[in-house]
Amino acid sequence: MNTIGRLVILVRDYEEAITFYRDKLGFEVFIDSEAPPLRFVHLRLPEQKDMGIWLLQASSNSQLDQVGRQTAGQPCAVIYTEDFDNEYKRLINNGVKFTKPRASDSNAEFAHFEDLYGNEFILVQLQTEVVD
Fold first, then answer.
1. Hey, where are the domains in the chain?
2. How far is the C-alpha of 103 from the C-alpha of 124, rounded, in Å?
3. Are residues 93 and 72 in contact, defined by beta-carbon separation less than 8 angstroms?
4. What fold is seen in the domain 6-126?
5. Where do the coiled-coil regions begin and end (predicted)?
6. 21: left (phi > 0), else alpha (psi -120 to 50), else beta?
7. How far apart, in whole angstroms, are the C-alpha atoms of residue 75 and residue 122?
8. What backbone phi and psi angles, to 5 degrees, belong to 20?
9. How many CB atoms sit inside 10 A of residue 2's CB?
10. pTM score
11. Predicted confidence (pLDDT) per residue in 7-50, tens digit
Protein backbone atom coordinates (compact mmCIF):
# COMPACT_ATOMS: atom_id res chain seq x y z
CA MET A 1 0.00 0.00 0.00
CA ASN A 2 1.24 3.48 -0.88
CA THR A 3 0.30 6.69 0.92
CA ILE A 4 1.25 10.35 0.70
CA GLY A 5 3.02 11.52 3.82
CA ARG A 6 3.98 15.18 3.29
CA LEU A 7 3.28 18.10 1.03
CA VAL A 8 6.50 20.13 0.66
CA ILE A 9 6.22 23.91 0.87
CA LEU A 10 9.17 26.21 0.29
CA VAL A 11 9.45 28.96 2.90
CA ARG A 12 11.63 32.02 3.40
CA ASP A 13 12.07 31.50 7.12
CA TYR A 14 11.27 28.54 9.34
CA GLU A 15 10.15 30.52 12.38
CA GLU A 16 7.73 32.80 10.51
CA ALA A 17 6.27 29.83 8.64
CA ILE A 18 5.86 27.74 11.80
CA THR A 19 4.14 30.68 13.51
CA PHE A 20 1.68 31.14 10.64
CA TYR A 21 0.78 27.47 10.15
CA ARG A 22 0.57 26.78 13.90
CA ASP A 23 -1.09 29.93 15.19
CA LYS A 24 -3.34 30.85 12.27
CA LEU A 25 -4.19 27.50 10.66
CA GLY A 26 -4.00 25.18 13.67
CA PHE A 27 -1.21 22.84 12.58
CA GLU A 28 1.10 21.30 15.16
CA VAL A 29 4.85 20.81 14.88
CA PHE A 30 5.62 17.12 15.29
CA ILE A 31 9.16 17.03 13.91
CA ASP A 32 11.69 19.83 14.26
CA SER A 33 15.18 18.47 14.09
CA GLU A 34 18.51 19.57 12.73
CA ALA A 35 21.10 17.59 10.88
CA PRO A 36 23.38 20.43 9.80
CA PRO A 37 23.19 21.92 7.31
CA LEU A 38 19.57 20.76 7.09
CA ARG A 39 16.59 21.36 9.35
CA PHE A 40 13.54 19.13 9.15
CA VAL A 41 10.26 20.79 10.13
CA HIS A 42 7.10 18.73 9.71
CA LEU A 43 3.63 19.97 10.62
CA ARG A 44 0.30 18.17 10.76
CA LEU A 45 -3.27 18.78 11.73
CA PRO A 46 -3.97 17.29 15.17
CA GLU A 47 -6.78 15.16 13.73
CA GLN A 48 -4.68 13.74 10.89
CA LYS A 49 -1.51 12.16 12.20
CA ASP A 50 -0.29 10.48 9.00
CA MET A 51 -0.35 13.42 6.53
CA GLY A 52 1.19 16.84 6.84
CA ILE A 53 3.41 19.60 5.52
CA TRP A 54 7.17 19.58 5.33
CA LEU A 55 8.45 23.14 5.50
CA LEU A 56 11.62 23.49 3.50
CA GLN A 57 13.55 26.73 3.74
CA ALA A 58 14.68 27.99 0.34
CA SER A 59 18.45 27.76 0.07
CA SER A 60 19.15 29.33 -3.33
CA ASN A 61 17.99 32.36 -5.29
CA SER A 62 15.99 30.17 -7.68
CA GLN A 63 14.22 28.50 -4.73
CA LEU A 64 13.56 31.91 -3.12
CA ASP A 65 11.96 33.02 -6.39
CA GLN A 66 9.53 30.07 -6.11
CA VAL A 67 8.40 30.73 -2.53
CA GLY A 68 4.64 31.31 -2.73
CA ARG A 69 4.58 30.35 -6.41
CA GLN A 70 5.36 26.64 -6.40
CA THR A 71 2.11 25.75 -8.15
CA ALA A 72 2.15 28.65 -10.64
CA GLY A 73 -0.96 30.30 -9.22
CA GLN A 74 -2.97 27.13 -8.71
CA PRO A 75 -4.02 25.84 -5.27
CA CYS A 76 -1.36 23.79 -3.52
CA ALA A 77 -3.69 21.96 -1.12
CA VAL A 78 -7.27 21.40 -0.04
CA ILE A 79 -8.20 21.29 3.64
CA TYR A 80 -11.42 19.44 4.41
CA THR A 81 -13.59 20.37 7.36
CA GLU A 82 -16.75 18.97 8.88
CA ASP A 83 -17.84 22.41 10.16
CA PHE A 84 -17.28 25.00 7.47
CA ASP A 85 -18.93 27.92 9.27
CA ASN A 86 -16.88 27.59 12.44
CA GLU A 87 -13.60 26.91 10.64
CA TYR A 88 -14.14 29.81 8.21
CA LYS A 89 -14.84 32.19 11.11
CA ARG A 90 -11.87 30.85 13.10
CA LEU A 91 -9.51 31.45 10.19
CA ILE A 92 -10.84 34.97 9.60
CA ASN A 93 -10.49 35.74 13.32
CA ASN A 94 -6.88 34.49 13.12
CA GLY A 95 -6.14 36.96 10.32
CA VAL A 96 -6.09 34.50 7.42
CA LYS A 97 -6.57 36.26 4.08
CA PHE A 98 -9.36 34.79 1.95
CA THR A 99 -8.83 35.49 -1.74
CA LYS A 100 -12.17 34.29 -3.08
CA PRO A 101 -15.48 34.58 -1.25
CA ARG A 102 -17.09 31.51 0.17
CA ALA A 103 -19.24 29.69 -2.33
CA SER A 104 -21.09 26.44 -2.70
CA ASP A 105 -22.36 24.04 -5.29
CA SER A 106 -24.26 20.79 -5.09
CA ASN A 107 -21.15 18.96 -3.84
CA ALA A 108 -19.42 21.30 -1.41
CA GLU A 109 -19.04 24.61 0.34
CA PHE A 110 -15.62 26.18 -0.18
CA ALA A 111 -13.42 29.27 0.05
CA HIS A 112 -9.88 30.05 -1.11
CA PHE A 113 -7.25 31.51 1.19
CA GLU A 114 -3.51 32.21 1.15
CA ASP A 115 -0.67 31.40 3.49
CA LEU A 116 1.85 34.07 4.47
CA TYR A 117 3.72 33.66 1.17
CA GLY A 118 0.74 33.64 -1.20
CA ASN A 119 0.33 29.87 -1.60
CA GLU A 120 -3.35 29.21 -2.21
CA PHE A 121 -5.35 26.70 -0.18
CA ILE A 122 -9.00 25.75 -0.41
CA LEU A 123 -11.15 25.15 2.66
CA VAL A 124 -13.88 22.64 1.76
CA GLN A 125 -16.82 20.98 3.42
CA LEU A 126 -18.24 18.21 1.27
CA GLN A 127 -22.00 17.87 1.19
CA THR A 128 -23.26 14.70 2.78
CA GLU A 129 -26.12 12.79 1.32
CA VAL A 130 -29.07 12.06 3.55
CA VAL A 131 -30.10 8.41 3.18
CA ASP A 132 -33.54 7.33 4.35
1. 6-126
2. 10
3. no
4. 2,3-Dihydroxybiphenyl 1,2-Dioxygenase; domain 1 (3.10.180)
5. none
6. alpha
7. 7
8. -65, -55
9. 4
10. 0.89
11. 999 999 999 999 999 999 999 999 999 998 889 999 999 999 88
